[in-house]
Specification:
It is an enzyme of class 3 (hydrolase). The chain has 17 helices and 20 strands. By secondary structure, the protein is α/β, with parallel strands linked by helices. It has a 10-stranded mixed β-sheet with strand order 6-5-4-3-7-1-10-11-2-12, with helices on both faces. The two termini are 33 Å apart.
């Protein structure tokens, strides 16, 4: 059914379909407990909704992460992999064609008005804002570079109009005022038009000084200056450890001295103070919806683009790493039928947000991890074109979602940059001719959480490997693949088995899984095990179905996984260059001449041309 044919159906159903609001902060952490210092967020969202405790971004930097959120596609499919050209930024977003095919355009095709306030992308600036305007928004008021991260010198462009300076005003407060104006506009619609509203304040991102270029602690409103005087970053095991951790440039970092530690503590205090304006924004948002009688028909999603580290693993303020500090992020949802005060253990990612919004906007019920869009217009993508699935928002959905996913693919290209007074130190490279950073921070990673395992595995472009058992090592300081750890484990015969199998057998499975995920599209991203183990062409009770690591660890598959190609890099690149990323495909089990009976020694592997 086309857009025109759908119009009458959408109009008739619009009053019953929910409004959707997305609050998207910038660089907000989970592991330093920033949410614990936002009492209004707790009151209005966490106590009244569900907190998703296993939510991850798939790339730990803002522009690529936001591109993933707005398209439902992993960064290797958006090809927006950096914050600036030539590999990222708003011009890259446009050149890749996403400005004509992303969330607000799809929502408008489903009959929604769409509004957006705040930061959209890096390099969306005062020079290009009107050359190729961001499409799909009924009303917009965008922050523009190079003023985006200047807390008291912001410039906004409303509906593509000439930039307006808000010098001397506090940017997050300005964003709140603009958000409330758009909210009133949406709520005052006479025809009960459903709406989507995105609001993206810059807090708690660093404050950027342009000349000379510096990333300083975020600026906070004067009314919050008295807060958190005694706060210190949690002294967890990974906080400035005595023994270096990680691989590549991380493993070479010197221990932070007391002066740097004191500075970093105050840096995080500034971040918490800056978040208080967001906390107040959340309350203002909820109160306005409640006053209009629209709160019970509105879903509110609260998240951030990526996490943040300060002093963990000896690192100064920043992101761009695969550690949980950088990829494990907040997701809180309040709305019709969402359980109150609940903590969900579903494994979710930013690729899942766009499919979830579409599912809600279509009026469809939860369908496992499938979007049910019986009357979707041509402008709305089918699930097969997206890399994410639908997040189980209601308790009744959890059973349906049990097979949805246990994995999140993690990826990054380029270098890593430190922030703050002491952030720029170490083995410097050159990023895009202007900003320095740590070189060779390109890697492919995998976060895997299931019954009996909680793992992070990564392969760097230097071909160094990391594996962390996060249940036993939440700080991710003991790389199970480092020679020192392996020697200790061998000597003590400890921790050498994961989920009951030897480490080598587990690694073979992880390599095969990441081989699928690192270049997956659509169904392969949601169900990578099914790509490795397609359903047999004929029934056989002797061949188990594989939908998880536990299933794949069956001893009958040992020879199959041992012969899989291994993830590797041929070169460290600053952007996505598949030709430099070694083998691109795993091999499907059981295709062609696969024999389904007998032991692993009797079974024949499928045709090695059966790539997935």
């Amino acid at each position: 059914m086309g857009v025109g044919a759908l119009a009458s159906t959408v109009t008739a159903a619009s009053s019953s379909r929910p409004n959707i609001i997305l609050v998207l902060t910038d660089d907000q952490d989970v592991h330093m407990h920033s949410l614990d210092h936002m009492p209004l967020l707790q009151k209005h969202l966490m106590h009244e909704g569900t907190t998703f405790e296993r939510h991850f971004c798939t790339i730990a930097v803002c522009c690529p992460s936001r591109a993933t959120l707005l398209t439902g596609k992993a960064a290797h499919n958006t090809n927006v992999t950096d914050i600036v050209m030539p590999y990222g930024g708003y011009p890259k977003w446009v050149s890749e064609g996403h400005n004509d095919n992303y969330l607000p355009i799809w929502l408008q095709a489903l009959g929604y008005d769409t509004y957006y306030v705040g930061k959209l992308f890096n390099q969306h600036d005062v020079g290009n804002y009107d050359e190729t305007p961001a499409k799909g928004w009924t009303q917009s008021d965008f922050l523009l570079d190079p003023y985006t991260y200047q807390y008291e010198n912001a410039k906004f462009s409303r509906n593509g109009g000439k930039p307006v300076s808000y010098k001397g005003q506090y940017s997050p407060d300005v964003t709140t005022d603009k958000m409330l104006e758009f909210l009133d506009m949406a709520l005052d619609k006479n025809d009960d038009q459903p709406f989507f509203l995105g609001v993206a304040p810059i807090a708690p991102h660093a404050n950027m000084v342009i000349d000379p270029l510096e990333l300083r602690p975020p600026v906070y409103a004067k009314r919050h200056a008295h807060l958190f005087k005694d706060y210190k970053i949690p002294r967890t095991e990974n906080f400035n450890p005595d023994v270096p951790s990680g691989v590549s440039w991380v493993a070479q970092l010197p221990k932070l001295n007391d002066t740097v530690i004191e500075y970093n503590d105050e840096y995080q205090r500034c971040r918490l103070r800056a978040l208080q304006s967001v906390d107040e924004m959340v309350e203002a948002l909820v109160h306005r919806l409640d006053k209009a009688g629209a709160l019970d028909n509105t879903y509110i999603f609260y998240t951030t683009d990526n996490g943040y580290h300060i002093s963990q693993h000896r690192m100064n303020p920043g992101k761009e790493c695969g550690f949980d500090t950088d990829i494990h992020i907040p997701l809180i949802v309040r709305g019709p039928g969402v359980d109150r005060g609940v903590k969900s253990h579903a494994v979710t990612a930013h690729t899942d947000l766009a499919p979830t919004f579409l599912n809600l906007a279509s009026g469809a019920s939860f369908g496992g991890d499938d979007i049910v869009l019986s009357d979707a217009p041509d402008a709305v993508p089918h699930l097969k074109d997206l890399d994410g699935g639908v997040i189980p928002l209601h308790s009744a959905d959890v059973v349906s979602a049990s097979k949805k996913t246990e994995h999140v693919g993690i990826e990054f290209w380029g270098n890593a940059a430190g922030e703050g007074k002491y952030g720029f130190s170490g083995d410097w490279g050159h990023i895009n001719g202007s900003v320095n950073g740590y070189v060779n921070n390109t890697y492919k990673g995998l976060r895997l959480i299931g019954e009996g395992y909680n793992l992070y595995y990564s392969v760097w472009c230097t071909n160094e490997h990391e594996l962390y058992d996060v249940s036993r090592d939440p700080g991710q300081v003991r790389n199970l693949l480092s020679s020192s750890v392996l020697n200790r484990l061998t000597a003590s015969n400890d921790l050498l088995r994961i989920a009951g199998r030897p480490l080598t057998a587990v690694l073979d499975r992880l390599d095969a899984l990441i081989m699928v995920i690192k270049s997956c599209k659509g169904d392969a991203c949601r169900h990578p095990w099914e790509k490795l183990h397609p359903k047999p062409t004929r029934a056989s009770a002797d061949v188990p179905t594989v939908t998880s690591l536990i299933d794949a660890l069956d001893e009958r598959f040992d020879a199959f996984y041992a012969r899989q190609p291994k993830v590797r890099f041929d070169k460290c690149e600053l952007g996505y260059m598949p030709s430099s990323e070694g083998p691109q495909h795993a091999v499907a089990y059981g295709k062609g001449s696969m024999y389904y009976g007998g032991s692993s020694s009797q079974a024949r592997l499928g045709h090695w041309s059966d790539w997935v």
